TrEMBL record:
Compartment(s): Membrane; Thylakoid
Protein name per the record: Uncharacterized protein
Organism the protein comes from: Tagetes erecta
Compositionally biased spans, kind Low complexity: 1-22
Pfam families membership: PSII_Pbs27
InterPro entries tied to this protein: PSII_Psb27, PSII_Psb27_sf
Region (Disordered): 1-36
Record-level GO BP terms: photosystem II assembly; photosystem II repair
Major localization class: membrane
Highest taxon above the source species: Eukaryota
GO cellular component entries: chloroplast thylakoid lumen; photosystem II
Keywords: Membrane, Thylakoid
Length: 172
């Protein structure tokens, strides 16, 4: 049953519509080319000036930013201690949410700092720390900061922390 107000398509074509006219650009093409050329020249020139005016010491910065082994060892030990204290906190502790937030911030900055360093990627301590931090962070992201870590996962994390700590002491 069709509604009387329903609009039905018709097969007849009406020629009351005018065809659309193509849109024409009012700018001559030489201006566009000149603008592009001028902009390219300006960018090229400014890049050359910027590169030539920087001192030679700036090119040495990436190697200077590489963390020393002592710094890596110290910061990794701090992260290990923070992970241990946080995951061993009682679930009724009122400071657990703050401790988890602090741990997540610390672990994110540790990972961001040391993940880029090629010299650390093969180290056993880095691999174990990265794995443990990933497990801890994944748990708290999935279940919330007040949810206790299951015993099996907690045991594995603590074993990885012990392994990372031993590897740090051996310089690995």
């Amino acid at each position: 049953m069709a509604s009387p107000t329903l609009v039905t398509p018709t097969t007849t074509t009406t020629s009351t519509h005018k065809p659309l006219l193509p849109i024409r650009c009012h700018h001559p093409t030489t201006t566009t080319t000149t603008t592009t050329t001028n902009r390219r020249s300006f960018l090229s020139l400014s890049t050359i000036i910027a590169l030539s005016s920087t001192p030679l010491s700036v090119s040495i910065i990436p190697s200077a930013l590489a963390a020393s082994d002592d710094e890596y060892t110290k910061e990794t030990q701090e992260v290990i201690n923070k992970v241990r204290t946080t995951i061993n906190m009682d679930k009724t502790d009122p400071n657990i949410a703050t401790a988890v937030a602090d741990l997540r911030e610390t672990s994110n900055s540790w990972v961001a700092k040391y993940r880029k360093e090629k010299s650390l990627l093969g180290k056993l301590s880095f691999r174990d720390m990265y794995s443990a931090l990933n497990a801890v962070s994944g748990h708290y992201v999935s279940f919330g900061p007040t949810s206790p870590i299951p015993a099996k996962r907690k045991t594995r994390i603590l074993e990885e922390m012990d392994s990372a700590e031993k590897a740090l002491l051996r310089g690995r």
